């Protein structure tokens, strides 16, 4: 393996556009039976799971692409659908989606053929489609919004590195993604043309900064999506970080297992296995993303001993109700992904149509607690604008003290008393003037 970043190249891509795309405006007449099959055409070795739905899409719009090629992440990445004109040959675009193609949005449009296959071709309100297909609402700058809502640039000691918390850093290893989420917090920087070589030039200074800061024990590699990089580039970066004695854990944040699950290849897993303890945060938004393909990708990562956590953004009309969120979190657990964070949608420019009221997330978590296993309940956080970090918001189950009893409300709304004579708030406080019976445990005093 080379130690020189400049020598690292992306893995060779298949030539783009192997096929002519047929001009069908809709394919809603196709029925997509639920189920899965494997790429087992006689002359080809099994490569990856492919659902009946994905396979029907492949046969209709990419008839010259065989199963092996479809299951190759290089092909998926090189053949991303990057124009609404092309997407319009595969599904019926709404007038607003068509208009959005004429305006300037901060974020480019791109989606893998695999992920496009999961869209409802006839319904612009389809949750997966809404997260990826631009609309004119993105043109608006709404109150409270900005290009860098988390103030990352102000906490960046060297380009491509964010140091906001005492013991960990965010390493922005790439600005590329295999698909661009319309609510992306980093829409100011991701997907800009020709940025790969520029980004790689930032790595040495970022690594040197980490080497010179022994208080940093945890590096989160993000971007962009680090799994758009080649195995060789990842191997190089991980090996450099692992050589730093004070780095205890390395984390990777990625949506690739969801939008390009074919990326989780045996050779990638061989690389990742070398750098334990290595954890991965999976960006997943809706239960419809947990396809047979995504399930296989996540299973492969889990089998490689990589602890998996989920990161989900709360999105209006997409996952902002208890049944959808519960189904998503239970589905993630079934694929061995531990629900981790549920984020209030950051106020990035043009995202108001995705943002719920802040307390919607509290209500959803409250609606889940007690009704499903505790492992399935994520921590709801607001990432404080300006760089204050993640602030958890939880339902309040504490009603206050009554004498030496702490009064608690359970998930059904029933009140219970827990004898708690040793609590300092019950005996020593009184500054609030309400006496112990009005105290909520100290926070209001
Ligand atoms: S995968 Fe992550 S970095 Fe890429 S567009 Fe989506 S939210 Fe942004």
UniProtKB/TrEMBL annotation:
Cofactor(s) listed in the protein's UniProt record: [4Fe-4S] cluster; pyridoxal 5'-phosphate
EC number of the protein: 5.4.3.2
Catalytic activity: L-lysine = (3S)-3,6-diaminohexanoate
Residues annotated as domain Radical SAM core: 163-380
Entry-linked Pfam families: LAM_C (PF12544), Radical_SAM (PF04055)
Residues modified as N6-(pyridoxal phosphate)lysine: 390
UniProt entry keywords in alphabetical sequence: 4Fe-4S, Iron, Iron-sulfur, Isomerase, Metal-binding, Pyridoxal phosphate, S-adenosyl-L-methionine
Entry GO MF terms: 4 iron, 4 sulfur cluster binding; L-lysine 2,3-aminomutase activity; metal ion binding
Record CDD domains: Radical_SAM
Binding site for [4Fe-4S] cluster: 177, 181, 184
Xref: NCBIfam families: KamA family radical SAM protein
Similarity remark: Belongs to the radical SAM superfamily. KamA family.
Entries under PANTHER family matching the protein: L-LYSINE 2,3-AMINOMUTASE, LYSINE 2,3-AMINOMUTASE-RELATED
Protein name: L-lysine 2,3-aminomutase
Originating organism: Desulfovibrio subterraneus
